[in-house]
Design a protein that fits this description.
Length: about 180
């Protein structure tokens, strides 16, 4: 029986052959040093520049960030301390934000928040998804980015999650053609 990982490995190999100039790798197969940080860091805005390839996702990402802030009523500082957003009309101001400067002004410091995945493998748990970060880089300069945490424990959780999803979708054996 093929696992989810084996099926996706075929797609990775196909992409490596069909697009030789685009690096395609399993992030969790990189060095242990790499596993201590972030596997993907994708700035949408960098300083005053709109990153051409990713800026088209800015408005959607900003709206997702604002929705999460409204639902959770907190974000994390760059040193992982909770920043409470439930007082002083901050949530209303956040919902009105149209730019990085607007959002930063309300929160008052560099911050990050995370999307989440409701787990099917671990009943009642939410797994951390993609992080959205906002960092001030100088007067009227910000980095607004999405990041994917890359730690061995995270990969183990998502491997179990994908295995469970695969089992639900394909309860009967799915064999590789020989």
């Amino acid at each position: 029986m093929m696992s989810w990982h084996a099926v996706y490995s075929i797609a990775v190999k196909w992409r490596q052959i069909s697009e030789p100039c685009d690096p395609v790798v399993w992030i969790n197969k990189l060095s242990e040093e790499f596993n201590a940080g972030f596997g993907s860091h994708t700035p949408l805005i960098l300083g005053q520049a709109k990153v051409v390839r990713y800026f088209p996702n800015f408005e959607r990402t900003l709206n997702v960030a604002k929705a999460i802030m409204k639902e959770r009523s907190y974000v994390y500082s760059k040193v992982d301390n909770l920043i409470d957003l439930s007082r002083d009309g901050k949530l209303q101001d956040i919902m009105q934000a149209k730019s990085c400067a607007d959002l930063y002004r309300v929160v008052g410091e560099d911050f990050w928040l995370s999307t989440w995945c409701d787990s099917t493998a671990f009943e009642g748990r939410q797994l951390e998804g993609t992080r959205i970060t906002l960092v001030k880089m100088g007067e009227n300069k910000y980095e607004f980015a999405i990041r994917t945490p890359c730690t061995p424990s995270r990969w183990d959780e998502f491997d179990a999650e994908m295995a469970k999803a695969w089992e639900v979708c394909y309860p009967t054996p799915f064999y590789a053609s020989q």
